[in-house]
Write a structure and sequence with these properties.
The complex is a heterodimer of chains A (115) and B (120). Chain A has 115 residues and is mainly β. Chain A is built from no helices and eleven strands. In chain A, the strands form two sheets. In chain A, strands 2, 4, 5, 9, 10 and 11 form a six-stranded mixed beta sheet that branches. In chain A, strands 1-3-8-7-6 form a five-stranded antiparallel beta sheet, with no helix packed on it. Chain B is mostly beta strands and 120 residues long. The chains are: A mainly beta (115), B mainly beta (120).
Amino acid sequence: GENVEQHPSTLSVQEGDSAVIKCTYSDSASNYFPWYKQELGKRPQLIIDIRSNVGEKKDQRIAVTLNKTAKHFSLHITETQPEDSAVYFCAATYRMNSGYSTLTFGKGTMLLVSP
Amino acid sequence: GAVVSQHPSRVICKSGTSVKIECRSLDFQATTMFWYRQFPKKSLMLMATSNEGSKATYEQGVEKDKFLINHASLTLSTLTVTSAHPEDSSFYICSARESLSGRRGDTEAFFGQGTRLTVV
């Protein structure tokens, strides 16, 4: 099955700095890579996603890059703000033998943005 | 985005009893639903994937007789924790996707609000 590795597990930055979270995946057939943000006590929410036919996607202060050859993708947050503090999960779609696909998550990165 | 409703949000049960958790997609048909378990300050651990009308696919190490999953309709999946024990205490969360892979491609998964299970 798919294996998704995520680093770092904890990331502390000063407000205004950039934050980068990196993930690698094992299944070369994976074609969909979402990023979720989970605030304390709340459900994960999708913040950005990328499909395998593009190399980069940007949405305001958030961007995601994908390197299919190296099988890694990264989340970039610029001009961080205290409200960006949360746990961020990357995920990759893994196609099961049944034909259905499932999402495999990384272990998460706790981002702390200090004012 | 689409809405996934999970109930109950919190449940306390006695050791040895069974608990049922419901996951409903309110405004779309969820052909696939996922059940996760999350420990404090830990990642989402996939327990099983359920597809409407077929048996759930369990991840390695997850006892299917312990965690019964039923996906009887396109809007409802249930997880039943049977003969619960204190070590089953955890945060259980479901997510749902709208389309079958290969038809419209892989799509975003929407999460329920989670269920905090405490077994005493």
